[in-house]
Design brief:
Elements lengths: L10 H21 L2 H12 L14 E4 L1 H14 L3 E2 L1 E2 L6 H9 L4 E4 L2 H10 L4 E4 L6 H9 L4 E4 L2 H9 L7 E6 L18 H13 L3 E6 L8 H18 L5 E3 L16 H10 L8 E4 L3 H4 L3 E11 L2 E4 L10 H4 L4 E4 L10 E7 L13 E4 L7 E4 L20 E4 L4
Parallel strand pairs: 1-17, 2-10, 3-4, 4-5, 5-6, 6-7, 7-8, 8-9, 9-10, 12-14
Antiparallel strand pairs: 1-11, 11-12, 11-16, 13-16, 14-15
Helix pairs in contact: 1-2, 8-9, 9-10
């Protein structure tokens, strides 16, 4: 995606600046002769802000490095163990490089592409390959890349690792699945072993000469600290029933981002995790692998209004692009700003909101309350959009690309 090397104050400032540049360019094109027009256009397009020349309208991903730094520090200070990053949430080289510079030394990878990405950006990083289903070719590639930790949720996957020559003493984490509430959607339907199967797997891991650990994932955007407590209590029971001492416990991700537009406080979750340690017979090293909870609030996503009709609005992006999660967990909070960057407030009305593609499924769920004064060229700035925009956006119908802008604040 196109990068913005020069920082602006915030999304509102960028919108107003972009509109002013567009106006200056239009004036230059309309009123000047060839030489004067060229000079005016160059001045409008290259004013030291890092903007490209105005082109077809498209979404803008606003990145606040200071917000990412603050959230990383909050995890390091608050979580009682090692903090890693689930690369799937935001496979951006800039994000990975900043996390590494901030002291992160391990990353959760789930594919050969993610392994290659981390090795390219952070060559000395420790890699955890906790996607529990891997082909033999993927295992061979991961072993060659020096993956340090693996997960399994079924005996056949453990056999596969052993047959592919996993060295004795490698960490193998048994992934547990429980029917807990509190998440936008759960991951247990796809991955994870129930408690009885997990007990058997723990014994098999230990008997194979590997270091037995456990891992789990409470589900994405989980707001209930009790979910971590429930998983930790069951993990302690499983380890005791299996007669093994766990090397580590990976409490996964699931930490929420501020999709409602408000601040996020992970302290209650950290406290529940800390309290959960009391259920284990021995002191236990902890690991977490946040994705959304670490990066979401460091980004906002700006989408422009292409057209307004009676009861309908058409945007420059939709569910095939950066708003891909809208169909699963809702579009999240947003602010409407006019081309001058000012908030459009006042009376609202219900609109059906479509994306730009030719597919009628490309729409936000239900009806969306928007200002009655909404106009073509206005912007919807969605909060907490640092997760799953880059990794999940498609280029369907030629849409789905965006500009990235560095901002001092969101």
């Amino acid at each position: 995606m196109m990068q913005r090397p020069v920082m602006v104050a915030d999304p509102a400032a960028w919108i107003a600046q972009d509109d002013a540049q567009a106006g200056a360019q239009d004036d230059a094109q309309a009123g000047a002769q060839d030489d004067a027009q060229a000079g005016a256009q160059a001045g409008a397009q290259d004013d030291g802000t890092g903007h490209d020349e105005p082109g077809p309208d498209g979404p803008v991903l606003f990145f606040c490095a200071a917000a990412l730094e603050a959230r990383h520090l909050a995890f390091r200070d608050g979580f009682p163990g090692d903090v890693t990053f689930a690369v799937k949430a935001n496979p951006s080289e800039a994000v990975l490089a900043q996390l590494w510079a901030g002291g992160m030394r391990a990353f959760d990878v789930a594919s050969p592409e993610e392994i290659a990405l981390v090795r390219r950006v952070c060559p000395r990083a420790v890699l955890h390959y906790h996607n529990p289903v891997r082909s033999r070719a993927e295992i061979a590639l991961a072993r060659a890349a020096g993956v340090a930790s693996w997960s399994v949720d079924e005996a056949g996957e453990l056999v596969k690792l052993l047959e592919c020559g996993l060295p004795a003493g490698s960490e193998v984490a048994v992934r547990l699945a429980l029917p807990v509430a509190g998440a936008a959607y759960a991951f247990g339907a796809k991955f994870g072993a129930g408690p009885e199967a997990a007990v058997t797997l723990l014994r098999q891991v230990a008997e194979a000469g590997m270091r037995p650990s456990m891992t789990f994932h409470v589900g994405t955007q989980c707001t209930d600290p009790a979910a971590w407590g429930a998983y930790m209590a069951e993990a302690a029971r499983c380890a005791q029933a299996a007669g093994v001492t766990l090397d580590r416990l990976n409490v996964g991700g699931g930490f929420p981002g501020g999709r409602d537009g408000g601040p996020v406080d992970h302290a209650p979750i950290f406290a529940a995790i800390r309290a959960g340690l009391a259920g284990f017979a021995q002191p236990l090293a902890l690991v977490c692998e946040p994705g959304r909870g670490l990066v979401a609030d460091a980004f906002a996503y700006g989408v422009q209004v292409k057209s307004r009709r009676a009861g309908r609005v058409y945007l420059t992006d939709g569910i095939y692009g950066g708003l891909v999660e809208a169909g699963q967990i809702g579009a999240g909070a947003f602010v409407v700003r006019g081309p001058d960057g000012q908030v459009r407030a006042g009376e609202t009305a219900a609109f059906t909101v479509f994306g730009p593609t030719c597919d009628s499924l490309d729409r936000l769920p239900g009806e969306v309350a928007l200002p009655v004064t909404l106009a073509e060229g206005d912007w919807l700035i969605f909060a907490a959009m640092g997760a799953y925009v880059q990794g999940m956006s498609s280029r369907f119908n030629g849409y789905g690309d965006w500009r990235q802008v560095a901002v001092a604040a969101l």
